[in-house]
Write a structure and sequence with these properties.
By secondary structure, the protein is mainly α. The protein has 3 helices and no strands.
Length: 88
């Protein structure tokens, strides 16, 4: 994962959100607003995927290679919890 790429996606999403708020305030066409909203959702999904990949390749991998069974179970539960939240 590229930390920089994740940050760029989050910053783009942040600036697009400000644009969407302004568009709503200025009563822009609904479809135009929804298209911008979908762009934000895409950026956030991409950032989430990069964060998940990084976590799996670092923290999760380290926990799974340890002998600490409690830590392994906790990490697995965390992944499942985040995945379930993402899929709602």
């Amino acid at each position: 994962m590229s930390k920089e790429k994740t940050i760029i996606n989050l910053k783009k999403a942040h600036s697009l959100l400000a644009k969407i708020i302004k568009m709503i305030e200025e009563k822009h066409y609904c479809i135009d607003i929804m298209q911008q909203n979908m762009a934000v959702i895409g950026l956030l999904k991409s950032a989430h995927q990069m964060l998940m990949e990084n976590h799996l390749n670092t923290c999760f991998k380290a926990a799974m290679s340890s002998k600490n069974e409690k830590k392994k179970k906790e990490m697995t539960c965390e992944i499942l919890k985040v995945t379930n939240l993402f899929n709602k």
